[in-house]
Amino acid sequence: MNKKILYSLLLSFAMFFTACENYLDVQPDTGFTTAEVFKTEKDIQSAVAGVYTLMLTDDAYSNRLAFVFNMNTDVEMSGVTTNTVNVNGSDLACYEPKPYWTTLNSTWNAMYKIINLSNDVIEGIEQSDLYKSASKDTPSAVTQLYGEVKTIRAMVYLDMIRIWGDVVFRTKSSTGDENFAVGVTDRNDILEFLIDDLKSVEPLMQYANQLDYGVERASRSFNQGLIGLLALTRGGWSLRPDTDNPASIGQMVRGDNYELYYDTAITYLGKVIQEQHHDLKLGYRDFWIKQNNWVTPVDDDVLFSLPLLKNSTGEYGYSIGIPITEGNHSYGGASGNLSLCGTYLFSFDKTDLRRDMTCAPFSYNENLNQVIRLDLARVAVAKWSKLYMDDPLGSTSSKGTGVNYPWMRFADVLLMYAEAVNERFGPRNDAQECLKRVRRRAFAQTNWSEKVENYVSSKTTKEAFFKAIMDERAWEFGGESKRKFDLARWNKFGEVIYNQYYKLLNWGRVANGAYVPGIDQVPGSVYWKNIPDPNNASRTILDIQGIDPILQARPAGYTELVFATSWYALNNETASYEPRNDIKWSFRGFINFNNASSISPNEPLRYLCPYPSKVITDHRGAIKNYYGFNY
Protein backbone atom coordinates (compact mmCIF):
# COMPACT_ATOMS: atom_id res chain seq x y z
CA MET A 1 0.00 0.00 0.00
CA ASN A 2 1.38 3.41 -0.97
CA LYS A 3 1.98 5.60 2.02
CA LYS A 4 -0.90 7.92 2.81
CA ILE A 5 -1.22 10.82 5.18
CA LEU A 6 -2.57 9.43 8.42
CA TYR A 7 -5.87 11.14 9.15
CA SER A 8 -6.40 14.91 9.23
CA LEU A 9 -6.18 15.68 12.92
CA LEU A 10 -3.44 18.10 13.98
CA LEU A 11 -1.39 17.97 17.13
CA SER A 12 -3.32 20.96 18.44
CA PHE A 13 -6.43 18.81 18.69
CA ALA A 14 -4.54 16.18 20.59
CA MET A 15 -3.19 18.74 23.05
CA PHE A 16 -6.62 20.31 23.45
CA PHE A 17 -8.12 16.95 24.24
CA THR A 18 -5.43 15.83 26.69
CA ALA A 19 -6.40 16.49 30.27
CA CYS A 20 -2.84 16.89 31.48
CA GLU A 21 0.65 17.12 30.04
CA ASN A 22 2.20 14.93 32.69
CA TYR A 23 1.19 13.58 36.05
CA LEU A 24 1.89 16.79 37.94
CA ASP A 25 0.98 19.46 35.41
CA VAL A 26 -2.80 19.32 35.24
CA GLN A 27 -4.44 21.56 32.65
CA PRO A 28 -7.66 23.48 33.23
CA ASP A 29 -10.96 21.89 32.28
CA THR A 30 -11.40 22.18 28.52
CA GLY A 31 -15.16 22.47 28.74
CA PHE A 32 -16.09 19.81 26.18
CA THR A 33 -18.46 16.92 26.74
CA THR A 34 -17.92 13.41 25.45
CA ALA A 35 -21.24 13.57 23.66
CA GLU A 36 -19.91 16.47 21.59
CA VAL A 37 -16.50 15.01 20.85
CA PHE A 38 -17.63 11.42 20.11
CA LYS A 39 -20.91 12.06 18.34
CA THR A 40 -20.01 10.47 14.99
CA GLU A 41 -17.65 7.80 13.70
CA LYS A 42 -15.59 10.54 12.08
CA ASP A 43 -15.28 12.29 15.44
CA ILE A 44 -14.00 9.11 17.05
CA GLN A 45 -11.58 8.51 14.20
CA SER A 46 -10.20 12.03 14.63
CA ALA A 47 -9.75 11.48 18.35
CA VAL A 48 -7.88 8.22 17.68
CA ALA A 49 -5.75 10.02 15.11
CA GLY A 50 -4.68 12.39 17.86
CA VAL A 51 -3.09 9.45 19.67
CA TYR A 52 -1.05 8.55 16.60
CA THR A 53 -0.07 12.20 16.15
CA LEU A 54 1.48 12.27 19.61
CA MET A 55 3.43 9.11 18.82
CA LEU A 56 5.20 10.81 15.91
CA THR A 57 7.10 13.43 17.92
CA ASP A 58 10.90 13.36 18.24
CA ASP A 59 10.63 12.68 21.98
CA ALA A 60 8.61 9.53 21.23
CA TYR A 61 8.78 7.25 18.21
CA SER A 62 10.11 9.56 15.52
CA ASN A 63 13.54 9.74 17.16
CA ARG A 64 14.09 8.60 20.75
CA LEU A 65 12.39 5.20 20.62
CA ALA A 66 13.82 4.57 17.16
CA PHE A 67 17.49 4.73 18.09
CA VAL A 68 18.43 7.07 20.96
CA PHE A 69 17.57 4.54 23.69
CA ASN A 70 19.93 2.02 22.17
CA MET A 71 22.55 0.17 24.17
CA ASN A 72 25.78 -1.43 23.04
CA THR A 73 25.32 -5.12 22.32
CA ASP A 74 26.75 -7.72 19.97
CA VAL A 75 24.59 -6.17 17.21
CA GLU A 76 24.11 -2.39 17.51
CA MET A 77 27.04 -0.48 18.95
CA SER A 78 28.22 3.06 19.57
CA GLY A 79 31.88 3.31 20.47
CA VAL A 80 32.55 5.00 23.82
CA THR A 81 36.16 6.12 24.18
CA THR A 82 36.28 7.68 27.63
CA ASN A 83 35.89 6.59 31.23
CA THR A 84 34.47 9.95 32.27
CA VAL A 85 30.87 11.09 32.40
CA ASN A 86 29.52 12.31 29.08
CA VAL A 87 26.67 14.77 29.49
CA ASN A 88 25.34 14.37 25.92
CA GLY A 89 23.71 11.02 26.64
CA SER A 90 26.20 8.55 25.20
CA ASP A 91 26.57 7.04 28.67
CA LEU A 92 23.28 5.27 28.01
CA ALA A 93 25.06 3.14 25.39
CA CYS A 94 27.59 1.88 27.96
CA TYR A 95 25.02 1.23 30.72
CA GLU A 96 25.67 4.35 32.78
CA PRO A 97 22.74 6.69 32.05
CA LYS A 98 22.26 9.64 34.36
CA PRO A 99 18.95 10.73 35.93
CA TYR A 100 19.62 14.34 34.95
CA TRP A 101 19.84 13.49 31.26
CA THR A 102 17.13 15.76 29.80
CA THR A 103 16.08 13.29 27.11
CA LEU A 104 14.94 10.87 29.80
CA ASN A 105 12.53 13.47 31.13
CA SER A 106 11.26 14.63 27.75
CA THR A 107 10.63 11.06 26.59
CA TRP A 108 8.93 10.11 29.86
CA ASN A 109 6.56 13.07 29.42
CA ALA A 110 6.00 12.36 25.72
CA MET A 111 5.04 8.75 26.44
CA TYR A 112 2.59 9.79 29.14
CA LYS A 113 1.01 12.30 26.81
CA ILE A 114 0.21 9.37 24.52
CA ILE A 115 -1.10 7.31 27.45
CA ASN A 116 -3.17 10.15 28.87
CA LEU A 117 -4.81 10.89 25.54
CA SER A 118 -5.42 7.18 25.01
CA ASN A 119 -7.20 7.01 28.36
CA ASP A 120 -9.33 10.01 27.43
CA VAL A 121 -10.26 8.53 24.08
CA ILE A 122 -11.03 5.09 25.51
CA GLU A 123 -13.32 6.59 28.11
CA GLY A 124 -14.95 8.84 25.53
CA ILE A 125 -15.67 5.93 23.19
CA GLU A 126 -17.09 3.86 26.05
CA GLN A 127 -19.51 6.68 26.88
CA SER A 128 -20.54 7.32 23.29
CA ASP A 129 -23.89 6.21 21.96
CA LEU A 130 -22.19 4.73 18.89
CA TYR A 131 -20.13 2.32 20.96
CA LYS A 132 -22.97 1.49 23.34
CA SER A 133 -25.20 0.50 20.44
CA ALA A 134 -22.49 -1.38 18.50
CA SER A 135 -22.58 -5.17 18.42
CA LYS A 136 -20.15 -6.77 20.83
CA ASP A 137 -20.26 -10.05 18.89
CA THR A 138 -18.74 -8.99 15.57
CA PRO A 139 -16.11 -6.38 14.64
CA SER A 140 -17.22 -2.96 13.42
CA ALA A 141 -15.54 0.35 12.65
CA VAL A 142 -16.28 1.64 16.17
CA THR A 143 -15.09 -1.48 18.02
CA GLN A 144 -11.97 -1.47 15.85
CA LEU A 145 -11.19 2.10 16.89
CA TYR A 146 -11.77 1.17 20.52
CA GLY A 147 -9.46 -1.83 20.31
CA GLU A 148 -6.96 0.21 18.33
CA VAL A 149 -6.43 2.73 21.12
CA LYS A 150 -6.16 0.03 23.75
CA THR A 151 -3.55 -1.74 21.64
CA ILE A 152 -1.50 1.42 21.18
CA ARG A 153 -1.70 2.17 24.90
CA ALA A 154 -0.40 -1.33 25.67
CA MET A 155 2.46 -0.89 23.19
CA VAL A 156 3.53 2.38 24.81
CA TYR A 157 3.37 0.92 28.30
CA LEU A 158 5.45 -2.05 27.15
CA ASP A 159 8.14 0.24 25.79
CA MET A 160 8.17 2.22 29.03
CA ILE A 161 8.52 -0.98 31.06
CA ARG A 162 11.39 -2.12 28.84
CA ILE A 163 13.15 1.23 29.36
CA TRP A 164 12.37 1.95 33.04
CA GLY A 165 11.01 -1.23 34.63
CA ASP A 166 8.18 -0.39 37.04
CA VAL A 167 6.34 2.75 35.92
CA VAL A 168 3.35 4.88 36.89
CA PHE A 169 0.23 3.07 35.71
CA ARG A 170 -3.02 4.80 34.87
CA THR A 171 -5.91 3.54 32.80
CA LYS A 172 -8.48 6.21 33.60
CA SER A 173 -8.96 9.66 32.18
CA SER A 174 -7.29 12.38 34.24
CA THR A 175 -9.29 14.89 36.24
CA GLY A 176 -8.27 18.13 37.87
CA ASP A 177 -8.85 17.21 41.51
CA GLU A 178 -6.72 14.08 42.00
CA ASN A 179 -3.36 13.48 43.62
CA PHE A 180 -0.68 12.93 41.01
CA ALA A 181 2.17 12.38 43.46
CA VAL A 182 1.85 8.64 43.05
CA GLY A 183 4.36 5.82 42.96
CA VAL A 184 5.09 3.19 40.37
CA THR A 185 3.25 -0.10 39.80
CA ASP A 186 5.00 -3.45 39.57
CA ARG A 187 5.67 -4.21 35.91
CA ASN A 188 4.21 -7.71 36.15
CA ASP A 189 0.90 -6.29 37.37
CA ILE A 190 0.89 -3.87 34.44
CA LEU A 191 1.72 -6.59 31.92
CA GLU A 192 -0.98 -8.89 33.29
CA PHE A 193 -3.58 -6.13 33.05
CA LEU A 194 -2.56 -5.27 29.49
CA ILE A 195 -2.66 -8.90 28.35
CA ASP A 196 -6.20 -9.32 29.67
CA ASP A 197 -7.22 -5.94 28.29
CA LEU A 198 -6.04 -6.78 24.79
CA LYS A 199 -7.64 -10.22 24.93
CA SER A 200 -10.98 -8.55 25.62
CA VAL A 201 -10.88 -6.40 22.47
CA GLU A 202 -9.10 -8.81 20.09
CA PRO A 203 -12.31 -10.47 18.75
CA LEU A 204 -13.81 -7.06 17.92
CA MET A 205 -10.89 -5.77 15.86
CA GLN A 206 -10.32 -5.92 12.10
CA TYR A 207 -7.40 -7.15 10.02
CA ALA A 208 -5.04 -4.82 8.18
CA ASN A 209 -6.54 -5.66 4.78
CA GLN A 210 -9.90 -4.42 6.09
CA LEU A 211 -8.55 -1.06 7.25
CA ASP A 212 -7.81 2.14 5.43
CA TYR A 213 -4.12 2.84 6.02
CA GLY A 214 -3.54 -0.91 6.49
CA VAL A 215 -0.64 -1.72 8.81
CA GLU A 216 -0.25 1.95 9.71
CA ARG A 217 -3.11 1.28 12.12
CA ALA A 218 -3.16 -1.22 14.97
CA SER A 219 -4.97 -4.21 13.51
CA ARG A 220 -6.28 -7.46 14.96
CA SER A 221 -3.11 -9.29 13.91
CA PHE A 222 -0.97 -6.67 15.64
CA ASN A 223 -3.12 -6.99 18.75
CA GLN A 224 -2.49 -10.75 18.71
CA GLY A 225 1.23 -10.32 18.14
CA LEU A 226 1.44 -7.74 20.91
CA ILE A 227 -0.33 -10.08 23.34
CA GLY A 228 2.36 -12.61 22.47
CA LEU A 229 5.17 -10.15 23.12
CA LEU A 230 3.59 -8.92 26.35
CA ALA A 231 3.28 -12.52 27.48
CA LEU A 232 6.90 -13.36 26.63
CA THR A 233 7.98 -10.24 28.52
CA ARG A 234 5.88 -11.25 31.52
CA GLY A 235 7.14 -14.85 31.32
CA GLY A 236 10.73 -13.80 30.82
CA TRP A 237 13.34 -12.26 33.09
CA SER A 238 13.79 -8.68 34.21
CA LEU A 239 16.11 -6.66 36.41
CA ARG A 240 14.65 -6.12 39.88
CA PRO A 241 15.89 -3.65 42.52
CA ASP A 242 17.30 -4.41 45.92
CA THR A 243 14.95 -2.11 47.81
CA ASP A 244 17.05 -2.41 50.96
CA ASN A 245 20.14 -1.21 49.14
CA PRO A 246 19.54 1.39 46.40
CA ALA A 247 23.26 1.31 45.56
CA SER A 248 22.99 -2.33 44.45
CA ILE A 249 22.63 -3.17 40.77
CA GLY A 250 19.80 -5.55 41.73
CA GLN A 251 19.17 -9.02 40.37
CA MET A 252 17.53 -10.73 37.41
CA VAL A 253 14.22 -12.34 38.39
CA ARG A 254 11.65 -14.40 36.54
CA GLY A 255 8.02 -13.91 37.50
CA ASP A 256 5.84 -16.62 39.02
CA ASN A 257 3.75 -18.82 36.73
CA TYR A 258 5.89 -17.98 33.73
CA GLU A 259 4.74 -21.16 31.98
CA LEU A 260 1.21 -19.76 31.83
CA TYR A 261 2.44 -16.73 29.90
CA TYR A 262 4.46 -18.78 27.45
CA ASP A 263 1.25 -20.72 26.78
CA THR A 264 -0.55 -17.43 26.18
CA ALA A 265 2.18 -16.39 23.76
CA ILE A 266 1.84 -19.68 21.88
CA THR A 267 -1.92 -19.20 21.58
CA TYR A 268 -1.92 -15.63 20.29
CA LEU A 269 1.21 -15.75 18.16
CA GLY A 270 -0.23 -18.97 16.78
CA LYS A 271 -3.36 -17.07 15.76
CA VAL A 272 -1.31 -14.65 13.68
CA ILE A 273 0.38 -17.55 11.92
CA GLN A 274 -2.72 -19.70 11.44
CA GLU A 275 -4.98 -16.90 10.20
CA GLN A 276 -2.52 -16.24 7.36
CA HIS A 277 -3.04 -12.49 6.99
CA HIS A 278 0.74 -11.97 6.93
CA ASP A 279 3.61 -13.77 5.24
CA LEU A 280 7.18 -13.36 4.00
CA LYS A 281 6.35 -13.11 0.30
CA LEU A 282 8.78 -10.35 -0.61
CA GLY A 283 12.48 -11.12 -0.75
CA TYR A 284 14.52 -9.58 2.04
CA ARG A 285 16.04 -6.90 -0.19
CA ASP A 286 12.76 -6.15 -1.96
CA PHE A 287 11.02 -5.72 1.37
CA TRP A 288 13.47 -3.05 2.55
CA ILE A 289 13.58 -1.26 -0.80
CA LYS A 290 9.80 -0.88 -0.62
CA GLN A 291 10.05 0.41 2.95
CA ASN A 292 12.40 3.14 1.78
CA ASN A 293 9.91 4.07 -0.94
CA TRP A 294 7.02 4.47 1.50
CA VAL A 295 5.35 1.25 0.35
CA THR A 296 4.17 -1.27 2.95
CA PRO A 297 1.96 -4.11 1.71
CA VAL A 298 -0.83 -5.05 4.11
CA ASP A 299 -0.32 -8.80 3.72
CA ASP A 300 3.42 -9.24 4.03
CA ASP A 301 6.02 -8.89 6.80
CA VAL A 302 4.90 -5.77 8.68
CA LEU A 303 2.22 -6.16 11.34
CA PHE A 304 2.40 -2.57 12.60
CA SER A 305 4.36 0.34 11.25
CA LEU A 306 4.58 3.78 12.86
CA PRO A 307 3.05 6.08 10.20
CA LEU A 308 5.76 8.71 9.95
CA LEU A 309 5.14 11.63 7.63
CA LYS A 310 7.21 12.44 4.56
CA ASN A 311 9.14 15.75 4.84
CA SER A 312 7.98 16.03 8.43
CA THR A 313 8.90 13.22 10.84
CA GLY A 314 11.14 10.18 10.98
CA GLU A 315 14.87 9.46 10.85
CA TYR A 316 14.99 6.15 9.01
CA GLY A 317 17.24 6.77 6.03
CA TYR A 318 18.89 9.68 7.87
CA SER A 319 20.17 8.84 11.36
CA ILE A 320 19.45 5.16 10.79
CA GLY A 321 20.88 4.08 7.46
CA ILE A 322 23.84 4.54 5.14
CA PRO A 323 25.60 7.93 5.59
CA ILE A 324 25.54 10.35 2.65
CA THR A 325 27.44 13.62 2.28
CA GLU A 326 25.37 16.44 0.81
CA GLY A 327 26.45 17.44 -2.67
CA ASN A 328 25.19 18.22 -6.12
CA HIS A 329 22.65 15.43 -6.06
CA SER A 330 18.98 15.08 -5.17
CA TYR A 331 19.25 12.78 -2.16
CA GLY A 332 20.37 15.22 0.54
CA GLY A 333 22.45 14.23 3.54
CA ALA A 334 22.31 11.34 5.98
CA SER A 335 24.27 11.01 9.21
CA GLY A 336 24.00 7.26 9.76
CA ASN A 337 24.48 7.76 13.50
CA LEU A 338 23.22 4.30 14.42
CA SER A 339 26.03 1.83 13.82
CA LEU A 340 26.51 -1.91 13.99
CA CYS A 341 29.39 -3.69 15.68
CA GLY A 342 32.22 -4.67 13.35
CA THR A 343 32.22 -8.26 14.57
CA TYR A 344 28.51 -8.56 13.76
CA LEU A 345 29.26 -8.25 10.04
CA PHE A 346 31.50 -11.30 10.27
CA SER A 347 28.92 -13.38 12.16
CA PHE A 348 26.76 -13.95 9.08
CA ASP A 349 26.97 -16.99 6.84
CA LYS A 350 28.58 -15.84 3.60
CA THR A 351 25.48 -16.92 1.64
CA ASP A 352 22.98 -15.20 3.96
CA LEU A 353 21.10 -12.69 1.81
CA ARG A 354 20.45 -10.54 4.87
CA ARG A 355 24.10 -9.67 5.48
CA ASP A 356 24.60 -7.15 2.71
CA MET A 357 21.11 -5.72 3.22
CA THR A 358 21.86 -5.21 6.91
CA CYS A 359 25.55 -4.28 7.09
CA ALA A 360 27.08 -1.49 4.99
CA PRO A 361 30.86 -1.12 5.52
CA PHE A 362 30.80 2.10 3.51
CA SER A 363 29.24 5.54 3.17
CA TYR A 364 28.61 7.80 0.15
CA ASN A 365 30.55 11.00 -0.55
CA GLU A 366 29.25 14.19 -2.14
CA ASN A 367 29.52 12.58 -5.58
CA LEU A 368 27.70 9.44 -4.41
CA ASN A 369 30.82 7.31 -4.68
CA GLN A 370 31.21 4.68 -1.99
CA VAL A 371 33.83 5.35 0.69
CA ILE A 372 35.16 2.60 2.99
CA ARG A 373 33.72 2.80 6.51
CA LEU A 374 34.59 -0.20 8.63
CA ASP A 375 35.75 -0.33 12.21
CA LEU A 376 34.80 -1.65 15.61
CA ALA A 377 31.58 0.39 15.80
CA ARG A 378 31.15 2.06 12.40
CA VAL A 379 29.27 -0.41 10.19
CA ALA A 380 26.21 1.39 8.82
CA VAL A 381 22.71 -0.08 8.78
CA ALA A 382 22.05 -0.96 5.15
CA LYS A 383 18.30 -1.53 5.52
CA TRP A 384 17.68 2.16 5.04
CA SER A 385 19.18 4.53 2.51
CA LYS A 386 17.97 7.61 0.69
CA LEU A 387 19.64 6.17 -2.40
CA TYR A 388 16.96 3.48 -2.52
CA MET A 389 14.32 6.15 -3.10
CA ASP A 390 12.84 6.36 -6.59
CA ASP A 391 11.54 9.84 -5.72
CA PRO A 392 14.39 11.52 -3.76
CA LEU A 393 13.61 14.10 -1.10
CA GLY A 394 15.85 16.83 -2.51
CA SER A 395 19.42 18.09 -2.28
CA THR A 396 18.97 19.88 1.06
CA SER A 397 16.87 17.20 2.74
CA SER A 398 18.00 15.74 6.03
CA LYS A 399 15.76 14.03 8.57
CA GLY A 400 11.98 13.96 8.29
CA THR A 401 12.17 11.19 5.70
CA GLY A 402 8.72 9.80 6.49
CA VAL A 403 10.04 6.25 6.10
CA ASN A 404 7.96 4.14 8.46
CA TYR A 405 9.11 2.53 11.69
CA PRO A 406 8.28 -1.23 11.40
CA TRP A 407 7.63 -1.83 15.10
CA MET A 408 6.55 -5.46 14.67
CA ARG A 409 7.13 -7.83 11.75
CA PHE A 410 5.78 -11.27 10.90
CA ALA A 411 9.33 -12.64 11.10
CA ASP A 412 9.27 -11.46 14.73
CA VAL A 413 6.05 -13.39 15.32
CA LEU A 414 7.49 -16.57 13.77
CA LEU A 415 10.62 -16.43 15.91
CA MET A 416 8.75 -15.52 19.10
CA TYR A 417 6.40 -18.46 18.51
CA ALA A 418 9.36 -20.79 17.98
CA GLU A 419 10.95 -19.43 21.16
CA ALA A 420 7.78 -19.94 23.23
CA VAL A 421 7.14 -23.48 21.96
CA ASN A 422 10.75 -24.45 22.57
CA GLU A 423 10.60 -23.11 26.12
CA ARG A 424 7.58 -25.27 26.91
CA PHE A 425 8.04 -28.35 24.74
CA GLY A 426 11.48 -28.25 23.18
CA PRO A 427 12.12 -27.96 19.41
CA ARG A 428 8.72 -29.26 18.34
CA ASN A 429 7.98 -29.54 14.62
CA ASP A 430 5.91 -26.34 14.47
CA ALA A 431 8.72 -24.41 16.17
CA GLN A 432 11.19 -25.80 13.68
CA GLU A 433 8.94 -24.83 10.77
CA CYS A 434 8.74 -21.23 12.00
CA LEU A 435 12.52 -20.99 12.13
CA LYS A 436 12.71 -22.54 8.68
CA ARG A 437 10.28 -19.99 7.24
CA VAL A 438 12.52 -17.14 8.36
CA ARG A 439 15.65 -18.83 7.02
CA ARG A 440 14.06 -19.69 3.66
CA ARG A 441 13.83 -15.99 2.92
CA ALA A 442 17.41 -15.51 4.11
CA PHE A 443 18.97 -17.96 1.64
CA ALA A 444 18.65 -18.73 -2.05
CA GLN A 445 16.52 -21.79 -2.72
CA THR A 446 19.55 -23.71 -3.94
CA ASN A 447 20.95 -23.48 -0.39
CA TRP A 448 17.79 -24.54 1.44
CA SER A 449 18.83 -28.15 1.92
CA GLU A 450 21.98 -27.20 3.82
CA LYS A 451 21.14 -23.82 5.32
CA VAL A 452 17.51 -24.40 6.20
CA GLU A 453 16.57 -28.07 6.49
CA ASN A 454 19.86 -29.50 7.75
CA TYR A 455 20.66 -26.47 9.89
CA VAL A 456 17.34 -26.50 11.74
CA SER A 457 17.08 -30.27 12.07
CA SER A 458 20.53 -30.32 13.69
CA LYS A 459 19.20 -28.30 16.66
CA THR A 460 17.85 -31.34 18.47
CA THR A 461 17.94 -30.12 22.07
CA LYS A 462 16.09 -27.30 23.79
CA GLU A 463 19.39 -25.54 24.49
CA ALA A 464 20.68 -25.83 20.93
CA PHE A 465 17.39 -24.65 19.45
CA PHE A 466 17.27 -21.67 21.81
CA LYS A 467 20.81 -20.72 20.79
CA ALA A 468 19.64 -20.89 17.16
CA ILE A 469 16.76 -18.52 18.00
CA MET A 470 19.19 -16.12 19.67
CA ASP A 471 21.40 -16.12 16.58
CA GLU A 472 18.51 -15.85 14.14
CA ARG A 473 17.01 -12.83 15.86
CA ALA A 474 20.42 -11.13 15.74
CA TRP A 475 20.75 -11.73 11.99
CA GLU A 476 17.12 -10.92 11.18
CA PHE A 477 16.69 -7.69 13.17
CA GLY A 478 20.08 -5.97 12.99
CA GLY A 479 19.66 -2.19 13.18
CA GLU A 480 16.06 -2.45 14.44
CA SER A 481 17.05 -2.04 18.10
CA LYS A 482 15.43 -5.23 19.34
CA ARG A 483 18.54 -6.94 20.67
CA LYS A 484 18.58 -5.17 24.03
CA PHE A 485 15.01 -6.23 24.80
CA ASP A 486 15.63 -9.82 23.71
CA LEU A 487 18.75 -10.17 25.85
CA ALA A 488 16.91 -8.83 28.88
CA ARG A 489 13.95 -11.21 28.78
CA TRP A 490 16.26 -14.16 28.08
CA ASN A 491 18.51 -13.28 31.03
CA LYS A 492 21.41 -13.30 28.60
CA PHE A 493 22.45 -9.65 28.78
CA GLY A 494 25.40 -10.05 31.14
CA GLU A 495 26.65 -13.20 29.42
CA VAL A 496 26.48 -11.71 25.91
CA ILE A 497 28.15 -8.42 26.85
CA TYR A 498 30.85 -10.21 28.85
CA ASN A 499 31.59 -12.43 25.85
CA GLN A 500 31.45 -9.49 23.47
CA TYR A 501 34.01 -7.52 25.49
CA TYR A 502 36.43 -10.43 25.37
CA LYS A 503 35.66 -11.11 21.72
CA LEU A 504 36.72 -7.59 20.78
CA LEU A 505 39.75 -7.81 23.05
CA ASN A 506 40.82 -11.22 21.73
CA TRP A 507 40.31 -10.32 18.08
CA GLY A 508 42.76 -7.50 18.66
CA ARG A 509 45.23 -9.81 20.39
CA VAL A 510 45.04 -12.53 17.74
CA ALA A 511 45.39 -9.96 14.95
CA ASN A 512 48.64 -8.92 16.61
CA GLY A 513 50.01 -12.46 16.78
CA ALA A 514 48.79 -13.74 20.14
CA TYR A 515 47.41 -17.24 20.59
CA VAL A 516 43.88 -17.41 22.00
CA PRO A 517 42.31 -20.88 22.27
CA GLY A 518 39.24 -21.22 20.05
CA ILE A 519 40.10 -18.34 17.74
CA ASP A 520 41.90 -19.51 14.63
CA GLN A 521 41.96 -16.32 12.56
CA VAL A 522 40.45 -12.87 12.60
CA PRO A 523 40.20 -10.10 10.01
CA GLY A 524 43.27 -8.07 10.92
CA SER A 525 42.74 -5.98 7.78
CA VAL A 526 40.34 -5.74 4.88
CA TYR A 527 41.25 -4.58 1.39
CA TRP A 528 39.37 -2.39 -1.04
CA LYS A 529 39.46 -0.70 -4.39
CA ASN A 530 37.05 1.46 -6.38
CA ILE A 531 35.32 -0.10 -9.35
CA PRO A 532 32.69 1.35 -11.72
CA ASP A 533 29.11 1.19 -10.50
CA PRO A 534 27.40 -1.21 -12.94
CA ASN A 535 24.14 0.72 -12.49
CA ASN A 536 25.61 4.21 -12.98
CA ALA A 537 28.74 4.84 -15.04
CA SER A 538 29.37 8.21 -13.35
CA ARG A 539 29.86 6.66 -9.90
CA THR A 540 32.10 4.12 -8.24
CA ILE A 541 31.41 1.43 -5.70
CA LEU A 542 33.76 -0.57 -3.49
CA ASP A 543 35.10 -4.01 -4.11
CA ILE A 544 35.98 -5.19 -0.60
CA GLN A 545 38.10 -8.28 0.00
CA GLY A 546 38.81 -9.92 3.33
CA ILE A 547 35.30 -10.16 4.77
CA ASP A 548 34.68 -13.62 3.42
CA PRO A 549 37.01 -15.32 3.25
CA ILE A 550 39.34 -13.62 5.73
CA LEU A 551 42.62 -12.73 4.04
CA GLN A 552 46.08 -12.52 5.58
CA ALA A 553 47.73 -10.55 2.79
CA ARG A 554 46.82 -7.62 0.55
CA PRO A 555 45.71 -8.62 -2.96
CA ALA A 556 47.42 -6.77 -5.78
CA GLY A 557 45.72 -3.52 -6.67
CA TYR A 558 43.85 -3.17 -3.38
CA THR A 559 44.30 -0.66 -0.55
CA GLU A 560 44.61 -1.96 3.00
CA LEU A 561 42.25 -0.86 5.76
CA VAL A 562 43.54 -1.98 9.15
CA PHE A 563 40.68 -3.59 11.08
CA ALA A 564 41.12 -5.83 14.16
CA THR A 565 44.88 -5.22 14.22
CA SER A 566 44.19 -1.68 15.43
CA TRP A 567 42.10 -2.91 18.34
CA TYR A 568 45.12 -3.90 20.44
CA ALA A 569 48.17 -1.69 20.33
CA LEU A 570 51.16 -0.35 22.23
CA ASN A 571 50.33 2.29 24.80
CA ASN A 572 53.31 4.63 24.74
CA GLU A 573 52.57 5.92 28.23
CA THR A 574 52.53 2.50 29.90
CA ALA A 575 54.87 0.78 27.40
CA SER A 576 52.47 -2.15 27.28
CA TYR A 577 49.97 -3.52 24.77
CA GLU A 578 46.40 -2.67 25.61
CA PRO A 579 43.02 -2.76 23.94
CA ARG A 580 41.85 0.38 22.21
CA ASN A 581 39.80 2.87 24.23
CA ASP A 582 36.47 1.95 22.62
CA ILE A 583 37.01 -1.64 23.76
CA LYS A 584 38.02 -0.49 27.22
CA TRP A 585 34.99 1.71 27.83
CA SER A 586 32.09 0.87 25.47
CA PHE A 587 30.56 -1.47 28.08
CA ARG A 588 31.97 0.34 31.09
CA GLY A 589 28.78 0.28 33.18
CA PHE A 590 29.14 -3.50 33.28
CA ILE A 591 32.60 -4.61 32.19
CA ASN A 592 35.60 -2.43 31.40
CA PHE A 593 39.37 -2.32 31.39
CA ASN A 594 39.57 -1.60 35.11
CA ASN A 595 37.12 -4.21 36.44
CA ALA A 596 37.19 -7.03 33.86
CA SER A 597 39.06 -9.47 36.07
CA SER A 598 36.38 -9.25 38.77
CA ILE A 599 33.31 -9.50 36.51
CA SER A 600 31.38 -12.72 35.91
CA PRO A 601 29.15 -13.38 32.89
CA ASN A 602 26.41 -14.40 35.31
CA GLU A 603 26.23 -11.02 37.04
CA PRO A 604 23.19 -8.81 36.45
CA LEU A 605 23.66 -6.01 33.94
CA ARG A 606 21.96 -2.66 34.51
CA TYR A 607 20.08 -2.25 31.24
CA LEU A 608 17.25 -0.12 32.66
CA CYS A 609 17.27 3.68 32.71
CA PRO A 610 16.93 5.76 35.86
CA TYR A 611 13.78 7.71 36.54
CA PRO A 612 14.38 11.32 35.47
CA SER A 613 15.40 13.68 38.25
CA LYS A 614 12.40 15.91 37.61
CA VAL A 615 10.01 12.98 37.86
CA ILE A 616 11.45 12.07 41.26
CA THR A 617 11.10 15.68 42.43
CA ASP A 618 7.59 16.10 41.06
CA HIS A 619 6.33 12.89 42.62
CA ARG A 620 7.39 14.19 46.05
CA GLY A 621 9.13 11.08 47.33
CA ALA A 622 6.69 8.54 45.89
CA ILE A 623 9.25 7.43 43.26
CA LYS A 624 12.83 6.48 44.01
CA ASN A 625 15.79 5.35 41.91
CA TYR A 626 17.52 2.05 42.60
CA TYR A 627 20.09 -0.02 40.65
CA GLY A 628 22.98 2.13 41.85
CA PHE A 629 21.90 5.27 39.99
CA ASN A 630 22.99 8.60 41.44
CA TYR A 631 19.97 10.64 42.44
UniProtKB/TrEMBL annotation:
Keywords: Cell outer membrane, Membrane, Signal. It comes from the Bacteria. It is found in: Cell outer membrane. One of its GO terms (cellular component) is cell outer membrane. Residues 383-621 form the RagB/SusD domain. Residues 23-175 form the SusD-like N-terminal domain. This is Starch-binding associating with outer membrane. It comes from Flavobacterium glycines.
